[in-house]
Amino acid sequence: MHFVIHATDKENAIQWRAKHYREHRVHLDKSATHGVTVLMAGPLVADDGETPVGSLFVVEANDRAAVDAFTRSDPYYVNGVWERIDIHYFNKKRG
């Protein structure tokens, strides 16, 4: 099944995001240990087109529990970068 993870950063979290960036990338690279395959991922950005304000992922997993565990173990979640996280089933129709 496909899922979308939409995470928005806390206000003024840019320094925490930078501090935990490498750990976050390693976490994404090891997604298979959670039973998750990252199909697409990247930062959400402010109107300036550059400043990160969140994260968006499209992932594949057998169930929602795997996606929840993957998200809750992300360094951005663990270290309080993200303020809100929404996870939705995604029914891919194109692309």
How would you describe the overall organization of this protein?
With 95 residues, the protein is an alpha+beta fold. The protein has a four-stranded antiparallel beta sheet with strand order 2-3-1-4. A hairpin with a 6-residue loop joins strand 2 and strand 3. The longest helix has 9 residues. The protein is globular and about 35 Å long.
Helices and strands, with pairings:
Blueprint: E1 2-9, H1 14-19, H2 21-29, E2 36-45, E3 52-61, H3 64-72, H4 75-78, E4 82-90
In short:
With 95 residues, this protein is an alpha+beta fold.
Major sheet attributes? 4 strands, antiparallel
Beta content comes to 35-45%
What characteristic shape results from the CA principal axes? globular
Number of helices: 4
Number of strands: 4
Report the uncertain regions.
Answer: none
Strand numbers in spatial order across the main sheet? 2-3-1-4
Which key terms come to mind for this protein?
single chain, 95 residues, alpha+beta, four-stranded antiparallel sheet, 4 helices, 4 strands, globular
